[in-house]
Design a protein that fits this description.
It is built from 9 helices and 9 strands. By secondary structure, it is of the alpha/beta class. The protein has a single domain, classed as NAD(P)-binding Rossmann-like Domain (Rossmann fold, 3-Layer(aba) Sandwich). The strands form 2 sheets. Strands 3-2-1-4-6-7-9 form a 7-stranded parallel β-sheet, sandwiched between helices. It has a two-stranded parallel ribbon with strand order 5-8. Helix 1 packs parallel to helix 2. The longest helix has 29 residues. The chain starts with 8 loop residues before the first strand and ends in a 10-residue tail after the last helix.
Length: 281
């Protein structure tokens, strides 16, 4: 039976490392033609080379997803090269650790610009081509932190919740309009990538503690995550949960509602070794 990606053209943002690289390589392995972008030129070149070794046709370009004009130019380049786009994986993102009280407004804006507006820009640039293909698919990377909120992740939570809302609304718009474009919101749990170690932060103590915790509890490898995402996208799943922690969290939040917030706040305060205020209202 033919793979659901064979012969299709798939776009991956944030393809220079981590989950983006694994998505690109797995797409190439499954017979897709891939269009890849990232701001990291060296990492992007390495990903592209690994895809070409697998026999894939590759278009790779250094693009900043924060810049809408760059994304539109990239979309035009991909169409000029391949003539069509079938699949879009809005994957680019960064991490940040810091409370609202202690974070600089520029740090918050940077997270939202990349993690949320990058998704919007990718979607706007490629959506007309996905609709025109008659069989388009979009997978937007939210997070387990798009399902529940955590102290010191305010900016990241805001961006990932926004991605979830944007994606769920977009899916409904495609249904209402009758467009043959499926839309999926992707919620990875702890995936063993460098997003935590590369994250910036307003407090070095908090950043070190939470990065160390992430390294201990990350349960899913990026290659496994890529396979789950590709299978879920091909099946048109509205919500793709990646890793057992994502499945458990999704269930708990739906059962507990907002009552999860108080015990989680105390737990995180303990992890940070009293870095957060001891009084939690």
């Amino acid at each position: 039976m033919s793979d659901p990606y064979r012969g299709r053209v798939a776009v991956v943002t944030g393809a220079a490392s981590g989950m983006g690289r694994s998505l690109a390589i797995e797409l190439a392995r499954r017979g897709a033609r891939v269009a890849l972008c990232d701001v990291d030129a060296a990492g992007l070149a390495e990903t592209a080379a690994r895809c070409r070794v697998l026999g894939a046709q590759v278009e790779a370009e250094v693009v900043d997803v924060v810049d809408y004009e760059q994304m539109c130019a990239f979309a035009a380049t991909v169409i000029a090269r391949f003539g069509v786009v079938h699949d879009l994986f809005n994957n680019a993102g960064i991490g940040f650790v810091g409370t609202i009280e202690n974070s600089d407004i520029k740090d918050i804006a940077r997270v939202v610009d990349i993690d949320f507006w990058g998704v919007v820009h990718g979607t706007k640039a490629f959506l007309p081509h996905l609709i025109a293909s008659g069989q388009g698919r979009i997978a937007n990377t939210s997070s387990i932190f798009g399902l529940f909120a955590v102290p010191s992740q305010s900016a990241y939570n805001a961006a990932k919740f926004a991605v979830r809302g944007f994606t769920e609304s977009l899916r409904q718009e495609m249904l209402v309009a009758g467009h043959r474009v499926t839309v999926s919101s992707v919620h990875p749990g702890g995936v063993r990538t460098a997003i935590a170690t590369n994250a910036a932060g307003s407090d070095e103590h908090q950043l070190h503690r939470l990065s160390a915790l992430f390294d201990r509890i990350a349960l899913t490898g990026p290659d496994q995550a890529a396979r789950v995402i590709l299978d879920g996208t091909a099946a048109g799943k509205p919500k793709i949960l990646v890793g057992p922690d994502a499945h458990v969290t999704d269930l708990l939040v739906r059962v507990l509602g907002s009552s999860y917030q108080r015990p989680l706040a105390w737990l995180i305060a303990g992890v940070l070794d009293s870095a957060l205020p001891t009084h939690i209202a």
